[in-house]
Amino acid sequence: MIRKVFSCLGLAVVTSATLAAVGATAVHAQAQTFPTKPIRMIVPFPPGGGTDILARLVANKLTEVQKWTVVAENRAGAGGTIGITEAVRAAPTGYEMVMGQKDNLVVAPWLYKNLSYDPTRDLVAVAHVGFTPIMIVTSVNSRFKTLADVVTIAKAEPGAVTYGSPGNGTTIHLAGEIFKGAAHIDIRHIPYKGSNAAMLDVLSGNVDLMVSSVASAMAQIKAGKLRPLAVTSAKRSTSLPDVPTVAELGYPSVDVSTWYGLFMPAGTPKSVVTTVNTVVNQLLATPEMQAAVIAQGAEVQAMTPDAFSSLLKTDYQKWRGIVQASGATVE
């Protein structure tokens, strides 16, 4: 009888071990075969902005180097929250991803009253791509030659100076409000649906200033059409080392930058997340990719999925206080 019991237990152990081995083999096989069809990369902002530029750079390189088929698709609106919502609702198979950033992941949840997602719960951090300073720019034909000019004129003409941003509730919008508070000036915010529309109006002189990611403004700066006044990050931009920080110019409390990275719906197999993270990090390590990212005004910063997840959670809580202190809300 005792021998029979041990025999049954032994059978159970063997069966469990076999099932575990089969499961491990299946996961390994999935990682080896992924992807077997095209991957959709949601871009939650319009074409031409910093998010779109970096998303397409990554998608094109994955297609070119890895021979994956990655299709970038713009799903813009509501400060980037429409695209994130679509990604959250996608099937967690690895064939739907989104290029997210601070705007729609750690700022928007504290600004929008009825937002349906929690990024720390509903998304999986896959691969951090990089970060970029935010900057204050103006047309080369404007009366503002320096940031000091902005402050002086804004104090002399309260409410008359305007600045554009890619939209209400973006990190860029809040960077403008943080500077406005630090300088004790009254400048009027004009929200746009994406960076390109704001860029056209600042170039034509319809708005005085634009607060923008370096990535979005870089092409027009290089073309000699935009004058960079300052960056809002703690350090100067690698791609624009001659442009001072707002802190250097007398406002040390202003320190705002934004980051970009790939996310997938919660429940996506860990093997797929690991595969995509490894491949993206390998791309980011190449001199060609680093030069391409820096040329767009961003800085490469690769991370493991765990490190990226930790960054998301930390910034999510940090920006809750910043948004609440700003008093900003979006219906």
From TrEMBL:
CDD domains reported for this sequence: PBP2_Bug27
The answer to whether the entry has keyword Signal is yes
UniProt-listed SUPFAM superfamilies: Periplasmic binding protein-like II
Q: Is this entry keyworded Manganese?
A: no
Q: Which UniProt keywords apply?
A: Receptor, Signal
Q: Which domain of life is it from?
A: Bacteria
Q: Where is the signal peptide?
A: 1-20
InterPro entries from the xrefs? Answer: BUG, Bug_dom1
Q: Which Pfam families match?
A: TctC
Q: What protein family is recorded? A: Belongs to the UPF0065 (bug) family.
Listed name of the protein? Tripartite-type tricarboxylate transporter receptor subunit TctC
Q: Which organism is it from?
A: Pigmentiphaga litoralis
Q: List the taxonomic lineage.
A: Bacteria, Pseudomonadati, Pseudomonadota, Betaproteobacteria, Burkholderiales
